[in-house]
């Protein structure tokens, strides 16, 4: 695309003194905010981040072949520059324009919340895709129809990559897209300019306090998604979550609904057992009752995710019967209450990494009444003292006074951690200091391998080993494959 046309399409004002510059006729090869990605004829957007400032890289951008830079302040480099008030927003609008505004031709479903985004969006995709070609964008992968693309970066991709995938979805004739919308994605303007047919918030509990500085800022950021819902779209709120209800009262939209156990909710949930839930609607657009029973996923929080996804599917035009049948065949998401081993003892792997997730998972596991509960928890590195203190409190509050013995191994996962997730001394101490006098039998192992090895060595028939933690726990299944094979001297087959 010609630079002039790109700027016009993205509504970036062209200064009068630049109107006749030859550079405007340049054909643009790439839009990027990363200097190392620049190829000849790239448009470089300089963004001031938390650690690096793109304005310091304009000389490198010129050397690599950038033909222009979008900046928030003029830099003394011989490279054409246009100054904007918000370069993060400019990156989003320019990325959209570069790929032909593909999101405008898609129907977007945005799911935000502290926990449950991944499971909910995967269920939505699972329900919709056989009937309507559907895309998925999230922390684990990108799906375009039935095709799966590995993705291991941000929950909500940066704008150039996000709109690239939107373009690929349009080429594949995708109609709907289920998108995980993170607080980082919102505050960094990755979703700027998107319009949602449906938006939902699963729940809110303390998380990312190192980035947002306070819970209040975190909640305010989450609220922003609802300002991007189309006037004739729909907004769903967790009616059992006090912070989500705060947002409900702030959001000005004609079609906003609550879902939860409270009798005041628009959609009332009745949990029948670990695998079944009844939804009773008090809304003319919804059938009076819908029961989701004998699901392959289990646990109260997963049933809530299934109910929310089912409502969204109904509002997307899928029939009640199709919703019920499709939800029954959804087998779950990797590392979300995933049973990975079940022989003389059981191993369950869960991504719980904040107070809300820890609470939901342990409360669900407790209902299984294991002989003993053996937990391996990977401490969150480079996330600050506050969230680690809150996580430790959640462990104590949910493990104290249980009817079965509990053993807890903490690890900083030094053997598998990347530099950005490395646990510092203060974070480690924040966790250990609260557990110290809790009465919970606790040990610390610096490596994930050693922590898992200790838990496996301790495990006896009837015990349940629970793995808890974010991405630093991701390698655990690979490590366990070796440890369990050594213990049994036979090939280990993980449950799926």
Radius of gyration: 24 Å
Globally, the shape reads globular
**CATH H-level name of the largest domain... which superfamily?**
Mur-like, catalytic domain
Mean pLDDT: 92
What's the number of extended β-strand segments? 21
SS summary, helix count: 16
Number of domains: 3
The biggest beta sheet reads: 11 strands, mixed
| CATH class division of the largest domain | Alpha Beta
Terminus-to-terminus distance:
46 Å
- What is the CATH T-level topology of the largest domain? UDP-N-acetylmuramoyl-L-alanine:D-glutamate ligase
Class derived from helix and strand content = alpha/beta
Low-confidence runs: 489-496
Instruction: Give the helix level as a range of percent.
Output: 25-40%
Please describe what this structure looks like.
The protein folds into 3 domains: 3-98, 3-Layer(aba) Sandwich (Udp-n-acetylmuramoylalanyl-d-glutamate--2,6- Diaminopimelate Ligase, Chain: A, domain 1), CATH 3.40.1390.10; 102-328, UDP-N-acetylmuramoyl-L-alanine:D-glutamate ligase, CATH 3.40.1190.10; 338-488, Protein-Tyrosine Phosphatase, Chain A (Alpha-Beta Complex), CATH 3.90.190.20. Helix 10 runs antiparallel to helix 11 and helix 13 packs parallel to helix 14. The protein has helices spanning 3-9, 58-64, 87-98, 117-128, 159-171, 183-187, 209-212, 215-223, 242-250, 300-315, 320-328, 355-366, 385-399, 425-435, 448-458, 476-488; strands at residues 30-32, 42-45, 68-71, 81-83, 107-112, 134-137, 141-144, 147-150, 176-180, 196-201, 229-238, 256-260, 267-273, 276-281, 289-292, 338-342, 346-350, 373-378, 406-411, 441-445, 464-468. The protein has 496 residues and is α/β, with parallel strands linked by helices. The strands form 3 sheets. An 11-stranded mixed β-sheet has the order 8-7-6-9-5-10-11-12-13-14-15, sandwiched between helices. It has a 6-stranded mixed β-sheet with strand order 16-17-21-18-19-20, with helices on both faces. A 4-stranded parallel β-sheet has the order 1-2-3-4, with helices on both faces. Strand 7 and strand 8 (147-150) form a beta hairpin.
């Amino acid at each position: 695309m010609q630079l002039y046309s790109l700027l016009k399409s993205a509504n970036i004002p062209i200064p009068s003194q630049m109107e006749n510059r030859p550079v405007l006729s340049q054909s643009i090869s790439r839009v990027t905010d990363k200097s190392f990605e620049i190829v000849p004829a790239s448009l470089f957007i300089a963004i001031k981040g938390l650690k690096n400032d793109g304005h310091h890289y304009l000389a490198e951008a010129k050397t690599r072949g950038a033909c222009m830079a979008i900046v928030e302040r003029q830099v003394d480099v011989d490279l054409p520059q246009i100054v904007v008030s918000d370069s993060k927003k400019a990156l989003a609008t320019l990325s959209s324009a570069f790929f032909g505004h593909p999101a405008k031709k898609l129907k977007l479903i945005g799911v935000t919340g502290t926990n449950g985004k991944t499971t909910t969006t995967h269920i939505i995709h699972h329900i919709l895709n056989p009937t309507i070609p559907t895309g998925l964008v999230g922390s684990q992968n990108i799906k375009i129809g039935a095709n799966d693309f590995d993705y291991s970066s941000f929950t909500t991709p940066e704008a150039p990559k996000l709109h690239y995938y939107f373009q690929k979805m349009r080429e594949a004739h995708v109609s709907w897209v289920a998108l995980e919308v993170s607080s980082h994605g919102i505050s960094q303007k990755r979703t700027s300019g998107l319009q949602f047919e449906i938006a939902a918030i699963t729940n809110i509990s303390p998380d990312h306090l190192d980035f947002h500085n306070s819970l209040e800022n975190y909640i305010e950021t989450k609220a922003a998604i609802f300002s991007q819902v189309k006037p004739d779209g729909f907004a769903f709120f967790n009616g059992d979550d006090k912070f989500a209800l705060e947002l409900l009262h702030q959001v000005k939209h004609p079609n906003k609904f609550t879902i939860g156990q409270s009798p005041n909710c628009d959609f009332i949930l009745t949990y029948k057992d670990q695998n079944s839930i009844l939804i009773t609607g008090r809304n003319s657009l919804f059938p009076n009752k819908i029961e989701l029973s004998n699901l392959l996923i289990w646990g109260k929080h997963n049933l809530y995710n299934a109910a929310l996804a089912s409502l969204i599917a109904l509002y997307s035009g899928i029939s009640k019967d199709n919703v019920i049948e499709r939800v029954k065949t959804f087998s779950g998401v990797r590392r979300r209450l995933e049973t990975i081993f079940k022989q003389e003892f059981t191993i369950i792997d869960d991504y719980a990494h904040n107070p809300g997730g820890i609470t939901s998972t342990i409360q669900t596991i407790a209902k299984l009444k294991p002989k003993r509960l053996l937990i391996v928890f990977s401490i969150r590195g480079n996330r600050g003292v506050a969230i680690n203190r809150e996580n430790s409190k959640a462990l104590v509050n949910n493990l104290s006074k249980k009817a079965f013995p509990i053993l807890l191994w903490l690890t900083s996962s030094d053997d598998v951690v990347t530099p950005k997730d490395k646990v510092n001394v203060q974070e480690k101490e924040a966790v250990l200091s609260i557990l110290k006098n809790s009465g919970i039998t606790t040990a610390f192992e610096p490596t994930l391998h050693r922590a898992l090895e200790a838990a496996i060595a301790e495990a006896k028939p009837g015990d349940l080993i629970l793995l808890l933690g974010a991405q630093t726990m991701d390698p655990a299944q690979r490590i366990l494959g070796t440890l369990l094979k050594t213990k049994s001297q036979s090939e280990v087959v993980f449950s799926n």
